[in-house]
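Batch manifest, entry 17 of 40.
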Amino acid sequence: MYYRMGLLYSIFFHIYIINRLIAVDDVMTGGITDSPVSPFRFILFGALFISFIFILVMIQTRTLVKTRKLLREKEQALELIELQKVELELKDKNITDSLIYAQRIQEALLPSETYFRKHFEDSFIFFKPKDIVSGDFYWIGEKGDKVFVVAADCTGHGVPGALMSMIGLKIIEKTINEDNIEIPSKILAVMNIGLEKTFSREKNIGTIIRDGMDIGLCIIDRKRKKVEYAGAFLPLYLIRDGSIVEIMADKIIIGMNPEGQPYTDHEIDLLDNDIFYIFSDGYVDQFGGSENKKFMYRRFRYLLLTIHSFPVNDQKAILEENIKTWMGLNEQVDDMMVIGFRPLISKTK
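Output type: structure tokens
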């Protein structure tokens, strides 16, 4: 803009000088000349024309220099952006590789579906982490005639949830296998104390970690044909004779119960063909559908009633395909876990 203004001022100035010099020439010649253009005027116009061209070239040269400078700066900025992009891609790859390795560790600690079926031949595990590693976890163990099945949902997901799930696994194993506690409500109480001790230490920043987990714990006694259950926010579903029964969990989070409120024990008589489902809230809280709403428990119960008589592999496949269709283009909002099993199917030898 400034160069254009300078050019206009230069043109006006030259016009002014030309008029003044013509006036001087007219005075000197008396306005009479034998030639249409006097030598003085010819030289004058030539000099002014050359001067004008020179000024114009200078202005254009400066504009060109400035343009080239801006282009160099833009090229340098693009090179910097490309370098930063490469660095971010490398960091992202390193983080992803680390998460995949952490996933392998977590999978090694969680019982496989094959191992689960050694205890319950007619069973499945639908397990879908949100961010490679999961804050949901499950565990199965056997002592005498009893089989222990645990499903838990830790606060958060991803790396923080996965770290907490590893702590939860160790507390469960110690409580059942080393401390020999076999009453569901007592196991939950011990877990509550263990988590509070682990996460109530003050850190350097002066804060206190207050995280916990939801959990459901079943103890199946095949000899007595009984199921004992206690839960914290994770209910247990039983489908029997085409009807669904919900065994309620206490609304007391594990690790956030400093008053030591007791958990409730439930005992259920087992019948042939009873099938149980224990699950985290990731499935029912997933957004999707035509109105982009949560899947919700009512829809989930209807789905289980529809598929419960199918082979377990088909049930798992339907659960996976159904939630995929429901999600559409939505992102997964939380870790998902659904475990289904029939307790009275003979254990694989």
